């Protein structure tokens, strides 16, 4: 099952991008053994619309277009503060269940500074929260990619996750 992270905004060169890349390489390396990956990052520019509602709508439309789930063998998960909170183990089980159900691509959507537009939330099979605290979008990507790696190690029985 391929994984994509579609995000509004770009990670600048430096420590955030390096940390993201470190975990992305781990996902790709460890994921092969459990049929998860490769991981693709899609970075989209922030909307220049005048209002927050218009920005969220524009960004939602572009995220959905980049992660087409119309084939039935793909699914989207929107990262959203109002979404479901999961333990790392539950997240790993969810990934494995999507893989085992024949989902060919799982896309994680990360909205812009104003959050997700209604269309992105409605087009997603799941809304997932990384926690109750607000995270900068770059840091949310890093947390997500680390949790993807952690999930792969849980699925494969690797001792990285010591819960």
Provide a short characterization of the protein structure.
It is built from five helices and five strands, in the order E-H-E-H-E-H-E-H-E-H.
Characterization of the model:
By secondary structure, this protein is of the alpha/beta class. The chain has one domain (2-156): SPOUT methyltransferase, trefoil knot domain (Alpha/beta knot), CATH 3.40.1280.10. The protein contains 5 helices and 5 strands; from the N terminus they run E-H-E-H-E-H-E-H-E-H. It has helices at residues 15-31, 52-66, 88-100, 118-122, 137-156; strands at 2-8, 39-44, 74-85, 105-110, 126-129. It has a 5-stranded parallel beta sheet, with helices on both faces. Helix 1 (15-31) links the parallel strand 1 and strand 2 (39-44). Helix 3 (88-100) packs across helix 5 (137-156). The radius of gyration is 15 Å and the shape is globular. The two termini are 25 Å apart. The relative contact order is 0.24.
CATH class: Alpha Beta
**CATH homology group:** SPOUT methyltransferase, trefoil knot domain
Q: Specify the oligomeric state.
A: single chain
End-to-end Cα distance, whole Å, is 25 Å
Order of helices and strands: EHEHEHEHEH
Using only C-alpha atoms, the radius of gyration works out to 15 Å
**Shape-level CATH architecture:** 3-Layer(aba) Sandwich
Mean pLDDT: 93
Strand arrangement in the largest pleated sheet: 2-1-4-3-5
| Structural class designation | alpha/beta
Discrete helix count: 5
Helix content: 40-55%
């Amino acid at each position: 099952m391929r994984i994509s992270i579609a995000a509004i905004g770009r990670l600048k060169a430096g420590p955030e991008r390096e940390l993201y890349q470190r975990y992305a390489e781990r996902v790709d390396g460890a994921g092969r053994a459990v049929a998860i990956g490769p991981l693709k990052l899609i970075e989209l520019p922030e909307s220049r619309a005048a209002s927050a509602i218009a920005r969220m709508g524009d960004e939602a439309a572009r995220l959905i277009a980049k992660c087409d789930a119309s084939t039935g063998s793909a699914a989207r998960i929107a990262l959203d503060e109002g979404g479901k909170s999961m333990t790392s183990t539950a997240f790993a089980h969810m990934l494995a269940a999507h893989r085992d159900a024949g989902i060919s691509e799982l896309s994680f959507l990360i909205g812009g500074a104003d959050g997700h537009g209604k269309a992105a939330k409605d087009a997603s099979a799941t809304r997932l929260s990384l926690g109750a605290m607000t995270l900068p979008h770059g840091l949310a990507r890093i947390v997500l990619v680390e949790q993807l790696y952690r999930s792969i190690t849980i699925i494969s029985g690797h001792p990285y996750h010591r819960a």
